[in-house]
Amino acid sequence: MIGKNMFDLMLPEDREITRNSVVEVMSGNPQFHFENRYVHKKGHVVNIMWSARWSEADRLRIGVARDVTERKRSESLQSALYSISEAAHTAEDLLKLFQRIHEIVGTLLPVDNFSVTLYDVETAQMSFPYHVDEFQQTPAPFTLIPGTFYAEVIHTGQPLLLTPETIASRQEELRISFGINPFCWLGVPLKTHKGTIGVLMVKSYPGGVCYNEQDQELLQFVSTQIGDGD
After folding, report:
1. Nearest C-alpha neighbor of 85 from the set 225, 191, 227
2. What DSSP element (H or E) covers 111?
3. Where is each GAF domain found (predicted)?
4. Taking CA 159 as the corner, what is the angle to CA 156 and CA 161, rounded to the nearest 5 degrees?
5. Domain CATH code at residue 213
6. Using H for helix, E for strand and C for coil, what is the string for 137-192?
7. Is residue 85 part of a domain?
8. pLDDT tens digits for the chain (230 residues)?
């Protein structure tokens, strides 16, 4: 941390509100329980709660920070549960439902790139009814290719988390699965009583955040709620 600007470590979407808070502190208005998010050195997001004031005698800001990531995670999960249930009953169509799910997942973890992929077991076809990606257009439906990341999630019914370390060892699968190499890739099975019917996927590109096992648990939680509402 020494020698680093705190804004360089902060999530971009939290920088403006944090700058406003800093201005308030330096104007003599203490800030209590202010929250923002930072990117950990391992790539995941950390929620921090601050209390800060300006010391006129020392001519500097004095602050106390506390990691509230677990508390925020618990609160977000509870809120997501209600939101998904509401969306399942009020969405006019599947597209609006998936758009709302994207918004809900965005309250739990960074999701600039998010896809809902559905699998037709009779034709072995994968389709993308909802796909948001920084660089890649919505793929056309295709036959599921054995050995790809999607195939692994579909056939095992288990989540798959790929970090920069694990991605490096799977270059051939990466070449088949993607046009642009992701930095991190996380896919979880979308299940109903009929079995695995698709994949919920998030990914990041170089310069973005890296997902971890807690993010995997969060996305799996969302997927389970969607499946239970089927």
Report:
1. 225
2. none
3. 93-227
4. 125
5. 3.30.450.40
6. CCCCCEECCCCCHHHHHHHHCCCEEECHHHHHCCHHHHHHHCCCCCCEEEEEEEEE
7. no
8. 555 777 888 888 889 988 898 888 888 888 888 888 888 877 778 888 898 888 888 888 888 888 888 888 788 778 888 888 888 788 788 888 899 999 988 888 889 999 999 999 899 999 999 999 998 889 899 998 887 888 999 999 999 999 888 877 776 666 555 556 788 999 999 998 888 999 999 999 888 888 988 889 889 988 888 876 55
Give the domain range for residue 163. 91-228
Which two three-digit tokens encode residue 151? 């195939």
Strand partners, 127: 118
* Tokens read off for 100: 């709302």
For the beta sheet containing 45-55, the strands, ordered from the edge strand earlier in sequence to the opposite edge, are 31-39, 45-55, 60-67
Residue 195 in domain: yes
Token pair belonging to 221:
């939680």
CA distance linking residue 205 with residue 209, whole number of Å: 8
State both tokens at 149. Answer: 């990341």
Where on the phi/psi map is residue 135: left (φ > 0), alpha (ψ -120 to 50), or beta?
alpha
